[in-house]
Amino acid sequence: MRRFFRSAPLLAAALLCAAASGAPAQGRPTLAITAPAAEELTRAGPVVVASHMLSGRKLRELLASGFPVRLHFAVELWRVGRWSNDVERIVEWEVVVRWLPVEHVYDVTHVANDQPFSLGRFAQLSDAEAAVARPVRASITAFASSKRFYYQASLSVETLSVRDIDEVERWLRGELEPAVRGQRNPGTALSRGVRTLFSRLAGGERREYEERTGIFRVGEGKR
User: Fold this and answer.
1) What total number of domains does the chain contain?
2) Is residue 99 situated within a structural domain?
């Protein structure tokens, strides 16, 4: 999204409007991961739920003012060792949330294996947040072994940097070739200047979360 501000008062007004547009009640951001039942450990991965991840005044102001929010998920299968633990497998995916001013909707896109999949477009931020919070079964499974294992989920939530916005917008529209070649559209000096100014005034936003399951043994079928 591109917005052009001619003066500081207009920028301040945009901040106030963005703050007013947030839902009145905001829950606490929570990341949860649940291992499958013992008999399913070698056939199904854990379920990850990221709740209330769009809460917070600063993040909502940036989102409403044209800064997409990227949620990067990683789920790792860890093997418990005698002296140290080791990562056996890992799977990653992302969710990108954007405000589309022309349509007046929030666009939520799930990205896995470089393939975008729309989770929908929503007029209310609370509905977009609910789409982000849909349970996701990670495509990672344990294997039969007498060793002990556990799953660990990590999530980073951040507003995209100025230099990433145009590329992400093109990529989500399917224009992959420029990104693959490393060719970025720098945008106009005015649009980049405004976004840089806005980012400095409102402050960037980055959050990190981590959660893990209990320890289980696959070979013995015990959690």
Assistant:
1) 1
2) no
